[in-house]
Design goal:
Elements (H helix, E strand, L loop, with lengths): L3 H5 L9 H9 L1 E6 L4 E3 L7 E15 L5 E7 L4 E2 L13 E14 H10 L1 H28 L2
Antiparallel strand pairs: 1-6, 2-6, 3-4, 3-5, 3-6
Helix pairs in contact: 3-4
């Protein structure tokens, strides 16, 4: 469990009721991870959504030849693990810390349950995920254009 004040720092929770903010804080923890740690691989179950408190995480797609291409680098305040809120709840890329990192980790199933109960919470998170996906798609397009 973390303090609701930690979540209040992030725009994803702006306008969310105090009750919902407290409920999310109850299912969240803080976690530190050293640089060079692979957090997940494509196809792994997305059992948590994370907010990067400090650090840097490379999001990479694995090409057909096995090469990894970085399509996004997440930094302080970014969401990591949007797949935790979107079926089939599996990661679609590889995530690796490039610097020591600290996260707010929110348990996925419990967060989905809260979003079902509080549509405003679900809307806020879904809006942020849509922005993230648009950014990630643009990064993938740039990387694909660079392939010889």
């Amino acid at each position: 469990m973390i303090s609701p004040e930690v979540l209040r720092r992030y725009p994803y929770f702006a306008g969310v009721s105090e009750e919902s903010l407290k409920a999310v804080a109850m299912i969240a923890d803080e976690k530190a991870v050293p640089a060079g740690t692979q957090l997940f691989s494509e196809g792994d179950p997305a059992d948590s959504m994370n907010i990067v408190v400090h650090g840097e995480i490379n999001v990479q797609y694995v090409l057909g030849n096995g090469e990894r291409r970085t399509v996004d680098t997440l930094v302080d305040g970014d969401i990591l693990g949007w797949s935790a809120l979107v079926e089939p709840y599996k990661y679609t890329a590889v995530g690796t810390t490039s610097k020591d990192a600290q996260f707010v980790t929110i348990r996925a199933q419990k967060l989905r349950d809260l979003c079902d109960k509080d549509p405003l919470l679900g809307y806020r998170l879904t809006t942020q995920i849509a922005k993230l996906l648009a950014h990630r798609l643009e990064g993938a397009r740039v990387q694909l254009a660079a392939i010889d």
